[in-house]
Write a structure and sequence with these properties.
α2 packs across α3 and α2 packs across α4. This protein has about 180 residues and is α/β, with parallel strands linked by helices.
Length: about 180
């Protein structure tokens, strides 16, 4: 089993590149954003709680994300591998992810960090909002997500660099070029 984390700021192409990896290598795509949005759409009790955070652009607390993510991940233990898209978002989540994977005899093999300039990120997010009608893609929420990324997620680059599994990729090129 080969497990990958794809991370980067909002709008960097994590979902797009993860889908390409799924198509090319037959891995299972675990998008925390999609998993959490599904909980919200299903109007479950946990979905209502998740919505209180996501609708404001705040990170959903670790215990909620972990519960939803691992419920889904455990359904795919026999796959070729997993792609964690949008998770972990902070060092605490990275440590918890490692502990849980280690208990199952698994590990993270590679971390891909997509690097995209902020102006391009905003353009992509606004285009995505128009195309897909995502309610979390509005100016105030986008700003909060960038602030949270800078404060919480950016530190993961150093963490995974020390682990020797970080690969930084420019996400500024056309999609096929980034994928290659």
């Amino acid at each position: 089993m080969y497990n990958i984390i794809v991370f980067g700021p909002p709008g960097s192409g994590k979902g797009t590149q993860s889908k390409n990896l799924v198509r090319e290598y037959g891995l299972v795509h675990l998008s925390t954003g999609e998993i959490l949005r599904r909980e919200v759409r299903d109007s479950s009790a946990i979905g209502e709680l998740i919505n209180k955070f996501m609708s404001r652009g705040y990170l959903v607390p670790d215990y909620i994300v972990l519960k939803s993510l691992f419920k889904t991940a455990l359904q795919h233990q026999q796959s070729k591998g997993l792609i964690f898209d949008g998770f972990p978002r902070n060092t605490n989540q990275a440590v918890l992810l490692e502990k849980i994977l280690n208990k199952k005899g698994m590990k993270i093999d590679k971390v891909i960090s997509l690097e995209v300039e902020e102006e391009e990120l905003i353009r992509r997010i606004m285009r995505r909002a128009r195309k897909y009608g995502r309610t979390d893609d509005v100016a105030e929420v986008i700003h909060n997500r960038f602030v949270m990324y800078e404060a919480e997620t950016l530190q993961l680059k150093e963490y995974y660099k020390k682990e020797g599994i970080l690969c930084s990729v420019s996400g500024m090129a056309p999609i096929p070029v980034v994928f290659e």
